[in-house]
Design brief:
alpha/beta, Rossmann fold, L-2-Hydroxyisocaproate Dehydrogenase, Chain A, domain 2, six-stranded parallel sheet, three-stranded antiparallel sheet
């Protein structure tokens, strides 16, 4: 395994922007870009390489699956987009076939010491599928999950109360999608519970929890409507996960991973706070959720399981 080597599979908006974000990080030494459109991957690699004189030395190349050998992390951003009139299950089945091809191509060249990071949507279901197809340890198969949703939540709360988002502690858990759950019960600002802070805050007349949650949940839809795709903040979220893995930070992130009984949920990949370090998922944290939040999280897991069953039906 080569220290600091990352392979990005998929050179679309998300894959290319992710590779560019990683190129500017201080933790990656080599990036391999793989795409079915080899010319696009080669063009991206060449374009990025021309920027190397402006930063620390880094190698950026386009390649095939064989070139993923020795990667510390493989990031999968490839997948089909939903077409008009196509159901979510149709899309899932199409992406399942794509992922099977990707995993078949990868597994001869990577080992169980490599961490696979899934970004393609629906990320929770495809993370679970990757875990099943690859045979990798569950700790080594991670989805980007609600890391971005959590950042959107913190940003929205910071805008609402006029506080730096980095000083707001809050989580979005569950599915990366319509059934995601805002954990209001543990949301705090500088260790002051959110509700208590808002009672004495002079910047607003109180917090509109439903409005903020809906804004966060629908952020991607809004961006897609305005510009066609989301990729800048996604790439930064992936970069953050990669930093945790590469530097063994043991930071807490709401990545998607396999649950095995936590929160009364098992055999599904879903986002809850996890300790992320050099070995992937090092610990899954058990938040003290309200009854309503726990019920919503379990319902979110049930929704994902339903889609997994339907996807696997012939």
């Amino acid at each position: 395994m080569k220290k600091g080597k990352v392979t990005v599979i998929g050179a679309g908006f998300v894959g290319s922007t992710t590779a560019f974000a990683l190129m500017q990080s201080s933790v990656v030494n080599e990036i391999v870009i793989i795409d079915i459109n080899k010319q696009k991957a080669e063009g991206d690699a060449l374009d990025m390489s021309h920027g190397v004189p402006f930063m620390k030395p880094i190698k950026v190349t386009a390649g095939d699956y064989v070139d993923s050998a020795d990667s510390e992390i493989v990031i999968i951003t490839a997948g089909a987009n939903q077409k008009p009139g196509e159901t979510r299950i149709d899309l899932l089945k199409k992406n399942a076939a794509i992922f099977k091809s990707i995993i078949d191509g990868l597994t001869p060249y990577i080992t169980h010491e490599t961490t696979i990071l899934v970004v393609t949507n629906p990320v929770d279901i495809l993370t679970y599928l990757t875990y099943k197809l690859s045979g990798f340890p569950a700790s080594r198969v991670i989805g980007s999950g609600t890391v971005l949703d959590t950042a959107r939540f913190r940003y929205s709360l910071g805008e609402h109360v006029g506080i730096d988002a980095r000083n707001i502690h809050a989580y979005i858990i569950g599915e990366h999608g319509d059934t995601e759950v805002a954990v209001w019960s543990s949301t705090s600002i500088g260790q002051i519970p959110m509700d208590e802070y808002c009672r004495c805050c002079t910047n607003c007349s109180g917090i509109n929890k439903y409005g903020i949650y809906e804004k966060v949940k629908n952020s991607a839809y809004e961006i897609i409507q305005k510009k066609g795709a989301t990729y800048y903040a996604v790439a930064l979220a992936v970069k953050r996960i990669v930093e945790c893995l590469m530097r063994n930070e043991r930071s807490i992130l709401t990545v998607s991973s396999l649950l095995t009984g936590q929160y009364g949920i098992d055999d599904v990949c879903i986002s809850v706070p996890c300790v992320v370090g050099k070995n992937g998922i090092e610990k899954t944290l058990q938040l003290k959720l309200s009854d309503e939040e726990l019920s919503a999280l379990r319902s979110s897991a049930d929704t994902l399981k339903k889609y997994i069953r339907e996807m696997m039906e012939e």
